[in-house]
Amino acid sequence: MPVQTEPLLLDRYLPHYDVTEVDAVVIDADPETTWQAIRRSDLGRSPVIRALLELRGLPVRLRRIVSRRPAESALPPLTLDEMTRAGFVLLEEVHGREIVLGQISRPWRVSDPADRAPAVGPSEFAAFDRPGFAKIAFNIRLEPYGSGRTLVTTETRTATTDPATARRFGRYWTLIGPFSGLIRRLMLGLVKADAERHGPMRRIPKMAHIEGEIEIARPVEEVFDFVADERNEPRYNPEMLRAEQITDGPPGAGTRFEAETRTRGGTVKMTIEFTEFERPRRIVETTQLSSMEIHGTLTFEPVAAGTRMRWSWDVEPRGIMKLMGPLVARMGARNEQTIWTGLKRYLEGQPASPVHA
Asked: What is the CATH number of the domain that holds 292?
């Protein structure tokens, strides 16, 4: 069955057109966050867009120089609101779904005010057919795209009101069209960056996922309590130089540790915090390092041989480490197996706990 979507608002205002161009981007932010970015993004932040808009407006400035009229000091419109103040008409807007703007003009020439197109409102835009003018309309449309993502499309349509104008506009668009397309693509890039940077539902890039399990021939309570006290790790992990508890009380939710581990390039300090704590079954923790942040869960399950311990870590990169995801995944998996094998060896090498009748 085909997917049913809402009709384009753009079709109401320029259903018949000579030229159309469409660009799209998938944004890792929810539709509302993306909509706010679209309404607020300032294209002037991009020096490339500024240069292209200046280039597109060059005929206007040349005509003003030749006619000895003062140059306009204002920059070209750089936000949607500024576009409506600079000659575009807000044809229709449905919050969070689509916005349509249009203009009736002679963009290939600079006319005197008396020769400009009449003011045309949204209800008259589609029917306007006075010879000598071009109609330009464009939309920005949002659609949910999976979980927490948004598909943004923008379409620009142009139509002329008579054959002679079509030829004039065709020459103009041959020169300006490629720059207009580049501006649209850069605009989508800015919106994507704004939405993904500021969105409360933005995705956190995960560099690597690491998981594994091991069986230890010791009771589950013994294994849990030993692992829950991070100060024990230097006993079974030779790379861990020190681990100190920096909060008061026995281990539990909110307990924090500071640790220092050995690496090939020296030492690395880290902070470990337990965010969830269910003795003797589960510990959820976050580890902060200068180069990454690690979120993970340790689970402890009683089995016939003693305890099955599982680990599951999500590694989030910082800086240059973002480029090394596959390598970190392989190294992390190997290191985790080494650490927990050391734990198994250490605990199984200790005298068994006395059993009380």
From this structure: 3.30.530.20
Whether residue 239 sits in one domain with residue 270:
yes
- 174 and 240 share a domain? no
Q: What pLDDT digit, counting tens, does each position of 174-225 carry?
A: 887 787 788 788 888 888 888 888 655 444 444 578 889 999 999 999 999 9
> Is position 3 within any domain?
no
- At residue 316's C-alpha, the angle toward residues 312 and 319, to 5°, is 150
How many other CB atoms are there within 10 angstroms of residue 31's CB atom?
21
Domain of 19, CATH number, reads: 3.30.530
* pTM given for the model: 0.52
* Residue among 108, 210, 117, 100 nearest 155 (CA): 100
What is the 3-state composition of the chain as percent helix, strand, coil, each rounded to the nearest 5? 35, 30, 30
What's the angle, vertex CA 133, arms to CA 132 and CA 137, rounded to 5? 165
Residue-wise pLDDT tens digits, 114-163: 356 678 889 999 999 999 999 999 999 999 988 889 999 999 999 999 99
d(CA 147, CA 203) in angstroms, rounded, equals: 10
Q: Which residues, listed in sequence order, are joined to residue 299 by a DSSP beta bridge?
A: 282, 310
| Cα 321 to the center of its chain, rounded Å | 18
